[in-house]
Amino acid sequence: MAEEVILLDFWASPFGMRVRVALAEKGIKYQCKEEKLDNKSQLLLKANPVNKQIPVLIHNGKAVCESTIILEYIDEVWKDKSPLLPCDPYERAHARFWADYVDKKIHRNGLKLLMSKGEEQETAKKDWIECFKVLEGELGEKPYFGGQSLGIVDVGLIPFYLWFNTLETLANFSMEAECPKIVGWGKRCMGNDSVSQTLPDLHKIHKILVDFMG
Amino acid sequence: MAEEVILLDFWPSPFGMRVRIALAEKGIKYEYKEENFDNKSQLLLKANPVHKQIPVLIHNGKAVCESTIILEYIDEVWKHKSPLLPSDAYERAHARFWADYVDKKIYSNGRKLLMSKGEEQETAKKDWIECFKVLEGELKDKPYFAGQSLGLVDVGLIPFYLWFHTVETLANFSMEAECPKIVGWAKRCMDNDSVSNTLPDYHKVHEFLLGLKKKFGVK
């Protein structure tokens, strides 16, 4: 049966980027439909009636929602190439734990840093740096969180690498100075075509984040 | 190899209850260690250094944290009995979506309802009821969210049934009136030994929640 894969997305969404990277890793052909966040399509509202959010993956007419859940789905369906999760249940639980850590902490802290000022921003900056130091602890000396190649944690986290420049400028700090291992990891991820050819240009992200703040 | 399964837990925790039910469903023998929140054990701090929270499942010396992740782990390791997730990839994604919905909405709305007063509590009540109406929409006429037997979503949600009496009393409403299908589902869950023999008595939970409100709630 011919595969029909559609991704409902918004170009600047880090959650959408995760799915794009995973689809590229697996070599899956798909149709991308760009959503306007202030004018959501009927297709999106029908595909994700509960949260009404992108990304949504529609595979042969069936909608899968929530980026981390979509990554697991992609990994289970297209299992012949580039596994995002290991086979061992303990290692899988370990990867899920860190993917969940990223989900709970990074976007929220990043937004806080972006939207706040003064003392509140200083606190947000400390929290942001602290989360990445914790992630450095988990990364250790591995090239990727997934070991020798990109895994679910790498794919989940790498879109936020595009926020570094903006946050550093806003809150006057350097990720290279604070979390050099993470910056090294970010550059290593960008060495993969599935990442570099998929993620939007850093300057465009910077502009939209700055616009969002305003 | 002899299995060693330890659960670090706290008796009224709905997240801990999820794991206890899953272990009971699978017929897994384990050692239960009760944690004291104001005095966390060295074992807990070592097993979950990132969040320092229960539940933690320690299986043959390896620690698994976060209740929904523990449920998936249990399901993958002890796959011979009572599957919590279906085999089809789409159905699995669907179940994970609803487990995630419960994770994101129920505890935080319940907590808000418990701890607040006046208008804030009225809003929290509306949100709580709304979430359960959405869940009723997903349940439809199935006996369980998973179909014919308990699944990931059922196990994730059922501990919050023990909160119904407390939130109803505090905010003056009836879950039976607002969400009869959910109440029917919960009673059906309680007919399973793995649930009824595992969950604490709801009066004890009620007392505990009122104690929390007294200590931490809006005065």
Description of the structure:
Two copies of one chain form a homodimer. Chain A has helices at residues 14-25, 42-47, 67-77, 89-115, 118-139, 152-157, 164-171, 175-178, 180-190, 193-196, 202-213; strands at residues 5-9, 31-34, 56-59, 62-65. With 214 residues, chain A is an alpha+beta fold. In chain A, 42% of the residues are buried. The model of chain A has no long low-confidence stretch (mean pLDDT 96). Helices cover 57% and strands 8% of the residues of chain A. The longest helix of chain A is centred in the middle third of the chain and has 27 residues, at 89-115. In chain A, helix 1 (14-25) links the parallel strand 1 (5-9) and strand 2. In chain A, helix 1 runs parallel beside helix 3 (67-77). In chain A, strands 2-1-3-4 form a four-stranded mixed sheet, with helices on one face. The A-B interface holds A 50, 59, 62, 64-66, 69-70, 72-73, 76-77, 89-90, 92-94, 96-97, 100-101, 134 and B 50, 59, 62, 64-66, 69-70, 72-73, 76-77, 89-90, 92-94, 96-97, 100-101, 134.
